[in-house]
Q: What sequence folds into this?
């Protein structure tokens, strides 16, 4: 048994139990709090057998019983939600298992048992919203079935699994999200494999963890530029993957996975106390890890399922992304990859979180690449063409005397113009961006052809460093590189960029969809702009030191 690992989780658990759950918290968070309390109450913690903890358990479990609907579900953001209920139920199943034989907590366990009895049929018949919900519901059913065997639960699991696991050959799930891979899909598949005797599901987790090795940043962040979920615009750490890397390291004797797990433990990322309950339930997860071996640090790795390329050279990493859903779907919405960032770079602590391009072209917004082509291992082309129509008069047979026509979409806006019945004249803008790795950095070559259009290139650096060589833009908290070379430095780590392109001010245009809702895709950080006007060819040199 890895006592150092258990001690780390126990200390993290104790820190969690020193905090108070806010009033009015949703049932899912209450369920997680119950699991945290039980882990402290039954583990080798200073809270073991603590009467105050038992009292809180009794209060919270009763609250959960009261808030459960007659149909077995809960309101957690969504009303009478089977998938949200499944998240809660997984935690309560662990609670039920850990309280076995604990006489003082027998009433808590009895309350939890009744909740599970009511929830099982709801999960066996209820629907879902997203791809990962299928596996979360199936894992919850596998857990309930382990406690309250029922063929309906097994049949429902088989029904969901028969749809096929939504993973590409490169190990990336369809949502392309580190949140849902780490917190939902991977742990759910491992739970089903364990409780339902489905070892073939482990391979999907293994391949996803293999992919994650190439998405890791040196500081433990995970690249999420391609995500279709909310993490696409946020920073995500690898901490949620801890037990997955541990379990597969132990199963396969994989030193790379062991190294990632050790890195998480060493940094103390995230809420590590949340893992204590699972380790108490399955002590084999706390076995000593195999000898750690360094994960990949020198590579060019392509992910075809999300049209991205990752390049790492020791402490320097870069991401090139051409897999936005916007060109294909023609919309900006939840569940789509809409992040307009197409390049990222970091050198140690100096982090360039995004490079984006926005022409001022009929309100079509940021550049979103329609493809990614590799011309050599580390030379990549991105490109897109956008077109804006001018409409001709309706043909005679489509005209009406009262002037009332169908309210139809143009692609940017709606109007009562029956657009689909009109011939069109187009203005077009074609953009190609070549990203080429060179010594100590990258060259980004922009080629814009077709219509005349001013544009802005935006570089957004992570807060915490110092910019030099740039000019503050009056009336904003932004900067412009007018000439020469700009520098962003954090300690001894530097990113140099340029050359500047003059003094013309061109605002980043988020597009008609965002302006209409007073929205923005402006990233947080130190934003530096270079400007130009199409048609043109421009090169941006980015170097690290």
A:
């Amino acid at each position: 048994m890895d006592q150092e690992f258990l001690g780390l989780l126990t200390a993290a658990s104790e820190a969690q139990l020193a905090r108070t759950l806010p009033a009015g918290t949703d049932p899912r968070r209450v369920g997680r709090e119950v699991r945290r309390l039980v882990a402290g109450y039954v583990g080798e913690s200073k809270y073991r057998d603590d009467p105050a903890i038992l009292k809180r358990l009794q209060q919270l479990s009763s609250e959960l019983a009261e808030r459960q609907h007659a149909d077995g579900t809960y309101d957690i953001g969504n009303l009478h939600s089977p998938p949200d209920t499944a998240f809660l139920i997984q935690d309560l199943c662990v609670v039920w298992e850990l309280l076995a034989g604990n006489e003082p907590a027998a009433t808590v366990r009895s309350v939890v048992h009744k909740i599970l009895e009511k929830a099982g049929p709801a999960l066996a018949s209820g629907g879902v919203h997203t791809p990962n919900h299928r596996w979360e519901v199936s894992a919850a059913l596998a857990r309930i079935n382990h406690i309250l065997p029922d063929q309906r639960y097994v049949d429902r699991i088989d029904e969901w699994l028969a749809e096929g696991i939504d993973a590409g050959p490169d190990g990336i799930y369809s949502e392309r999200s580190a949140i849902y891979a780490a917190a939902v899909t991977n742990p759910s598949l491992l739970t089903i494999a364990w409780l339902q005797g489905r070892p073939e599901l482990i391979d999907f987790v293994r391949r996803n963890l293999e992919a994650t090795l190439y998405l890791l940043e040196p500081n433990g962040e995970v690249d999420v530029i391609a995500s279709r979920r909310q993490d696409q615009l946020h920073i995500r750490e690898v901490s949620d993957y801890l037990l997955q890397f541990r379990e597969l390291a132990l199963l396969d004797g994989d030193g790379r996975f062991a190294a990632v797990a050790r890195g998480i433990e060493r940094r103390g990322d995230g809420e590590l106390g949340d893992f204590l309950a699972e380790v108490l339930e399955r002590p084999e997860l706390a076995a000593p890890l195999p000898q750690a071996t360094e994960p990949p640090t020198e590579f060019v790795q392509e992910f075809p399922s999300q049209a991205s390329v990752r390049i790492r050279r020791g402490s320097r990493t870069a991401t090139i992304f051409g897999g936005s859903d916007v060109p294909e779907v023609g919309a900006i919405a939840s569940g789509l990859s809409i992040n307009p960032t197409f390049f990222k770079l970091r050198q140690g602590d100096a982090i360039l979180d995004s490079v984006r391009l926005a022409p001022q072209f009929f309100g079509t917004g940021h550049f979103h690449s329609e493809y990614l082509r590799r011309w050599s291992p580390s030379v990549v082309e991105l490109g897109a063409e956008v077109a804006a129509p001018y409409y001709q008069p309706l043909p005679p047979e489509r005209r009406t005397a009262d002037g009332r026509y169908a309210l139809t979409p143009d692609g940017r806006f709606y109007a009562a113009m029956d657009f689909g019945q009109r011939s069109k004249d187009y203005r077009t803008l074609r953009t190609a961006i070549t990203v080429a790795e060179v010594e100590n950095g990258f060259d980004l070559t922009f080629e814009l052809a077709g219509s005349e259009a001013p544009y802005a290139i935006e570089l957004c650096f992570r807060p915490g460093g110092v910019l030099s060589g740039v000019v503050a833009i009056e009336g904003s908290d932004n900067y412009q590189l007018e000439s020469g070379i700009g520098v962003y430095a954090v300690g001894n780590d530097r990113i140099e960029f340029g050359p500047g392109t003059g003094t013309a001010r061109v605002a980043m245009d988020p597009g008609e969809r965002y302006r209409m809702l007073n929205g923005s895709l402006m990233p947080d950080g130190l934003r530096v702009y270079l400007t130009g006007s199409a048609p043109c060819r421009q090169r941006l040199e980015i170097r690290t030191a």
User: Anything to note?
Assistant: The radius of gyration is 27 Å. The first helix runs from residue 3 to 17.
